[in-house]
Amino acid sequence: MIETPDDTPSPSLSEADALPPSEQHAQQYAAVRNAHETELLEDYVELIGDLIAHQGEARSADIALRMGVSQATVSKMVGRLKSLGLVASKPYRSLFLTEEGEAMARMSRQRHAIVLQFLRALGVSDDTARIDAEGMEHHVSQETLDAMQRFTRLQSGEG
Amino acid sequence: MIETPDDTPSPSLSEADALPPSEQHAQQYAAVRNAHETELLEDYVELIGDLIAHQGEARSADIALRMGVSQATVSKMVGRLKSLGLVASKPYRSLFLTEEGEAMARMSRQRHAIVLQFLRALGVSDDTARIDAEGMEHHVSQETLDAMQRFTRLQSGEG
DNA sequence: CAATACAGTTAGCCTTTGCTAAGTTATTTA
DNA sequence: TAAATAACTTAGCAAAGGCTAACTGTATTG
Ligand SMILES: [Mn+2]
Ligand SMILES: [Mn+2]
Ligand SMILES: [Mn+2]
Ligand SMILES: [Mn+2]
């Protein structure tokens, strides 16, 4: 392993930040593309889990309504979720999460809650916090989640 | 205007949060889908602007390298940016931003910087902050940006 | 200045995520 | 219980965003 020649000058306040090294920059975008591959899956399983918990069952029509998409779109997505082993169902019947689906739903729900509570603790209004959390949650690393939780706890502790 | 019947119980700590009303829930997801439509465009114009500022010109090969994507993908995307009036170029030559492209780049760059500085102020390491900011930036409302700036200023002021 | 290397484009393919329209199954109700 | 309504599925379409392979144009350099 040879050290990459570092042509990044040390940070200065008077000029615009230099571009990061190409490989690091590429990794940033790759991480985003990566998040985009799983984010819809996460939202679906999280929603299915929430529907089961709050209304006793998860039906396609409810999902379509809450996601704001057509039932056909939900039907196709459910097919994908089944083929990925996250969801189980019989034709024309309501949906269930597999063990794997439950696990993903649990993680997603928790991460979502941390981000939402953090935004509220930051002083963002509830409506805005909900909207922003829905998108941000998929792009937040564990390290950032930890920092958010620290802040939220501090903030509520000081009340 | 009639007030929507509010079946959301007042928040309780002992039970899981209730689901938001369907229309509000749908709006959350719609906002995310919306952000996804412009997010790549924003990253491209921001990068093109940065390349012009830092290296004098923006070439497809550089973009491909920094985005971690094939040159063919860049070529196609540049076609889209041109058809949207954000970028101008002659075949086989380097890229320029239109007025509209400049405006989008300016906004994106500023928003990106606010999110990045905020994450650092929160205590997130530089590498992680860069990665998370690249994704989060597209899902952050003006209200949240304001809250982030307030926090960052406070934090640096107290140093 | 010819050969080579590098940069950019085009064609053709794939997956994801959306849609509408049309069909099928299940449930409700007259 | 037959008819009507609601729920679900399927087929077929489109746009976005990736890829590789093949081609074309530009720049370097022997
Ligand atoms: Mn979520
Ligand atoms: Mn989400
Ligand atoms: Mn950006
Ligand atoms: Mn970005």
UniProtKB/TrEMBL annotation, chains A, B:
Keywords: Activator, Cytoplasm, DNA-binding, Manganese, Repressor, Transcription, Transcription regulation. InterPro entries: DtxR_MntR_Metal-Reg (IPR050536), Fe_dep_repressor (IPR001367), Fe_dep_repressor_sf (IPR036421), HTH_DTXR (IPR022687), Iron_dep_repressor (IPR022689), WH-like_DNA-bd_sf (IPR036388), WH_DNA-bd_sf (IPR036390). It is found in: Cytoplasm. One of its GO terms (cellular component) is cytoplasm. Residues 1-24 are annotated as: Disordered. Residues 38-98 form the HTH dtxR-type domain. Homodimer. In the presence of manganese, represses expression of mntH and mntS. Up-regulates expression of mntP. PANTHER family: IRON (METAL) DEPENDENT REPRESSOR, DTXR FAMILY (PTHR33238), TRANSCRIPTIONAL REGULATOR MNTR (PTHR33238:SF11). This is Transcriptional regulator MntR. It comes from Franzmannia pantelleriensis.
